[in-house]
Every structure is written in C-alpha cells, then in structure tokens.
Specification:
mainly alpha, Tetracycline Repressor, domain 2, 2 domains, 59% helix
Amino acid sequence: MAYEVIKLVKGRPYRYRVHSERDPATGKFRNRWTYLGRGDATTASVPRPQRANAREALLDALERLLEHQDIDAVTAAAVSAEAGLAHGTFYRYFRNKNDVLRAVMERLRRKRAGDERLQPKVPGTQAEARAWLRGWATFMLRTPAENRGLARAWHDLAARDPEFGAERRASRAAYVVRIGEYLRVLVDRGFADLADPLASARVLFALLDGIQRETLLDDGPLDETRAAAALDLIERGVFGAAL
C-alpha cells in the first residue's frame, strides 16, 4: 500500500510518498519513505495547525493505521503524518509506538467501563441471569472482530513483550475474578450449580479466547455457527438445560 503525506519541518511542508510492504523473509511490514519535494512551492512557510487535542488525534491515527498494517510496520513518523501533525509532536506525548498503543487500549477500556453489557448485575430471576450472561459472552466474541487491528496488535505485543504480556495477564485475571464472583452469586441464589465458580470463569474465558484468536488469525468475520455453539455450551454449563 502507498500513500502521500506532508511533514512539517520548522513550519515548512515537505511531501513524501510512503510505501508499506511485507518483508517475505520475516513476514513483517516495513515503510519506505520517498521525498517528493516541497508541499507548496509558492508559500514560504505554513503555520502549524492548531489542534484542540493533539494527543487524541495521535490515538485516532494509530487506530486507523492498524486497520491495514501490522503493529511492526507502524512508526512514530507514520502516526504523526496520519494525524496531520509534525513528527516531533508525537514525542510530546509518547515515548514510542508501544506507549501510544497502551494509551489507545486504556482509552478503549474507559469507553467500555460504562457499557452495561460488561457490568455484571445481580439478577432477580434465572431468566435475567441467562440473558445477561449470553449477552456478555456475545459481546466478548464480537468485539475483537470489530476492532481487529487493535486487538491483533495487542495480542502480538503481549506474546513477545514481557511488559505488555504482564499487563494483559493482570487485566484478564482481574476480570476473570469479577465474572467468577458473579457466578458465585448465581450459585448462592440457586440459579446455577457450579462446584467452583472461579474455576468455571477461567474455563469460560479460555473458550472465548480460543474463538477470538482464531477469528483474528483467520482475518475474517466471526464464525457465527461456532459462536452460537459456544454460547449454547456456556449457557448449559452454567444453568443446565433450559426450562
């Protein structure tokens, strides 16, 4: 893939062509920059654009780039160019691309914090508990496919970067405990029959993780048949056969 960008150097625009290509030996993407000339030969200087929030513009830019590039192909310069900002602006907010990816993920977590589909509710009836758990599991299966580039980047870095891996495991472990506590509430209310709610929560997450990873690796849509089977399996495992 190739596209043109304009970089501002001391207020002056310079045009570059960026060509993204995959290295056949490593499978990683690399960006090749080619200088095309001044952005506007008739203008001696271009004022720097004023941004209400340059940091947010950089986060948005990374998300867009990850839609069609692997994280290894993304550079600080590419993120800055995609955001329409000078290269140096990137380093006012982030140390490197891992830092900006972490910030994008944190923004996504804050956005989801108020989503009712992720907030376990104490149910009044078993039917309500069934509906919430099935809706939650459906959301968990569909979300990676809807944020494919971001999810793939996070999985890739977590697999090879110890710091990212530790952060992902800690975040996952905390949420597993929350779901385990919810399952224990269901047991206490007589809605579910589980010997170890926390262990059941771990198994539930393992099942969802497996389908999520396959969806990301296949680079295609969620397999609806497999997803429906997984949802039925989860519901029967927690609640037993439907009445």
